[in-house]
Design a protein that fits this description.
By secondary structure, this protein is mainly alpha-helical. It has a single domain, classed as Methane Monooxygenase Hydroxylase, Chain G, domain 1. Helix content is about 90%, strand content about 0%. It is built from three helices and no strands. The protein has helices at about 1-20, 25-45, 50-64.
Length: about 60
């Protein structure tokens, strides 16, 4: 299931690049894709510490 996490991280990296370039609409779409992948990854994550860390990051990013 690390494929889901890796894909989510890749989306975040792309989103940051778009954000930095001022392409905010594109960045937002990429951030949203990363959240979807992280959320799906949580269903399969076995490590409680990793699971909690991801939950906190997803919660923080959706509250903003």
């Amino acid at each position: 299931m690390s494929d889901l996490r890796d894909k989510a991280i890749e989306y975040v990296k792309q989103a940051v690049a778009e954000d930095t370039a001022g392409n905010y609409k594109e960045a937002l779409a990429l951030y949203m894709h990363s959240l979807e992948y992280f959320s799906t990854h949580l269903k399969y994550e076995k490590n409680p510490r990793s699971k909690e860390a991801i939950k906190l990051k997803v919660r923080d990013s959706t509250a903003a």
